[in-house]
């Protein structure tokens, strides 16, 4: 086999985060316009290369005031750090469809190593439309990646106290990335 190149289809790829709010529930947010690439050889999965960029300026939680607060210097400081990035540097295949991908995650200009648990969801040949014309089929592959980070490790430290020793926002944040990768033009998948 040879290395194949895939690109993340931004319209069908998204990053979601979830943090505890007021000690009683979870608040979720999304980052859309996630773009990236995957270079992969099925015979050598440990040599895979993954890069992704998410647009933090369009963070969405469903509540405009909260979205504005998340974009502010209290949280993501998107004026100075408009994107989150990930560069995978090590891949460990755990089972036929499960992987651990370790790399550098950059949020708010701070880079830390993280490991994502990745589930491969399969491949399918699908139509490919450009300018109203079906140029397909094109091969698509799906993945879901999850991790948990401490937001303070990335300088995202705003908080406020609530009664009985609680806080408004938890330190630990769950991150889920759903990826629809499309095989690059001229590439052939295994």
Question: Order of strands side by side in the largest beta sheet?
Answer: 1-4-5-6-7-8-11-14
Helix residue percentage: under 10%
Computed over alpha carbons, the radius of gyration is 18 Å
Q: How many helical elements?
A: 1
Biggest sheet overview: 8 strands, antiparallel, barrel
**Alpha-carbon distance between the two ends:** 7 Å
Measured by DSSP, the beta-strand proportion falls in over 45%
Average of pLDDT: 88
Low-confidence stretches: none
The total strand number stands at 14
Shape annotation? globular
The helix/strand class is: mainly beta
What oligomeric state do these chains adopt?
Answer: single chain
Along the chain, the helix and strand elements come as: EEEEEHEEEEEEEEE
